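Q: What structure does this chain adopt?
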Amino acid sequence: MKEAMWSAEVGDDVFAEDPSINALQDYAAQLFGHEAALFCPSGTQTNQIAMGCHTSPGDEVICSDLAHIYLYEGGGLAWNSGLSARTVVADRGLILAAHLQGQINPPDAHYARTTLVSIENTVNKGGGAVYALHELQDIHRFCKTNGLAVHLDGARIFNALVATGDAPQSIGACFDSLSVCLSKGLGAPVGSLLIGSHSFIKKAHRRRKSMGGGMRQAGFLAAAGLYALNHHIDRLLIDHMNAKALAETLKELTWVAHVTKVETNIVIFQLASGIPSAQAVDTLAQLGIKCFAFGPDKLRFVTHLDNTPEQMDFALSTLQKTKAGLV
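A:
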């Protein structure tokens, strides 16, 4: 990847003159069966651009109560686009078409206009939960029937595709726009792509500029993303296997109360009563295991391409030694 970056041909992307970025955008758009794509610094930015392009200030977006756009993007729905959110409670954040029934506001001036549905796949706070293709197709049909746009927060979409075996174009057909991250499981240093129609991406390009996302010779970064798309997708299965191994080990520990179902590369588990997550994070760090507090009594592990077999063996054996208790 570093060699690809150093050898990249670059230009000025603000004027759409960076050949490496253009190549990445074209490749990603074709991969998901859409017309165009836009390279941005982060997945938060691609999501927030999409929110603004699909809506008008005062509109309402429907999303899961666990959605990244709702919980972890700094109030961007209101800050950037003047939107309110109608959140839907669903198992592990997996909204179904049935959940959308009755969620659309009537055409009355007292209510916000419901104009957009946003789906996250995989669901981060749902423990990397994955949608079945027919569920996404049902959501797409519901949205088209009711005149709603539908956006995919696909920060980990390739983890989902590896887990289900679905083709990228089959997923792309379910959405008006997709946000695809290159810097998570795929291992690029930075960057996400917003994918959609030519007209949509034209609007997105203007909005990216207003948000400070225009970059100059950023083809060095795009080259990393293109390398990742060509070399790092199939290997995501290793991350999934590592996550499941962690989950099975955690289930044997007395200080773990519950492990959320693991389908991809995220492991979320609840601590036994009385153990605060901050204390558990500190104790595990002292043992050589880094993790993330995901609530007052929950932790999150994430597996990725930088986890070596030796590191995984260390993590599993270290956890097994704490079977009788963490402290």
